[in-house]
Amino acid sequence: MVEGFKEFKAHLMSTNLSESTITTYLYAVKQFQKNYGKLRKKNLRDYKVWLIENYNPRTVNLRLHAINSYLEIIGKEAWKLQLVRVQQKPFLENVISEADYTYFKAKLKQNNEILWYFVIRFLAATGARVSELVQFKTENVKAGYVDLYSKGGKLRRIYIPKALKEEALVWLSEREQKSSFIFSNRRGKRITTRGIASQLKKLALQYGIDPDVVYPHSFRHRFAKSFLERCNDIAFLADLMGHESIETTRIYLRKTSMEQRIIIDAIIDW
Asked: How many whole angstroms from its chain centre is CA 16?
């Protein structure tokens, strides 16, 4: 095992990082060791080149973030690798449209897929990440919000809108659920983030919706887009989304490629 791996794993487990992020970080270190063996500067540089040749820039940077975090823990910060530049597209990709979201909700309700109806309702109406969604409890629904703390100790409040709160309370009452996590399986255990992503894809295919736009984070994007269409306060949205910088939030001012196409077709007649 590569030096300091156990300490790195223990450090990650003590943070507020999501389960999927922790898995990704550990995988990157294992991948480096498998391909390059000993921890040396040259091997780190070779690993970065190999990543660039085999993965897209976002994945490359995710792996490099993992390696840099690992290097910090073992006291080799001077060996940290520079991230690659990601060319940001002038449009948003793979965001579920408001029409598809409305249709999806209706079909889930019509087919009595009530648990999954509320999964997408909560994602799209609160802007929660899926790793945050699985932490929602009955007590939070009653209160109308969830308070979560980042690894830096910063408080983020996720509001549950009044209409969603009232509808969810009726659902929970029918389930006779007075406490605990609201998104659980038949055995009473919390649904995993991976399980949510997988089931949403299956349901999208079942109802004839493009599966490329149906994944947990797509509904968070939908929340942001719909919010800005109704309340053009990007600083407020940044707080709601839990973004450290307002620059991260500015992407939601962009339109999807489909929205761009509709506008172009409608206004250009010369």
From this structure: 14
Taking a C-beta distance cutoff of 8 angstroms, is the pair 227, 240 a contact? yes
Note the pLDDT tens digit of each residue in 61-86: 899 999 999 999 999 999 999 988 76
Domain that holds residue 69: 5-79
pLDDT, tens digit (0-9, with 9 covering 90-100), for 104-125: 999 999 999 999 999 999 999 9
Q: Does the pLDDT value for residue 219 go beyond 90? A: yes
Tell me how far the alpha carbon of residue 17 is from its chain's centroid. 12
Range 161-170, long-range pairs (CB < 8 A, 24+ positions): 161/125, 161/126, 164/121, 164/122, 164/125, 164/126, 165/141, 167/121, 168/118, 168/121, 168/122, 168/141, 169/141, 169/142
CB 191 within 8 A of CB 134: yes
**Contact predicate 246/80, CB 8 Å:** no
Do both 180 and 249 map to the same domain? Answer: yes
Q: Could you tell me if 136 and 74 lie in one domain? A: no
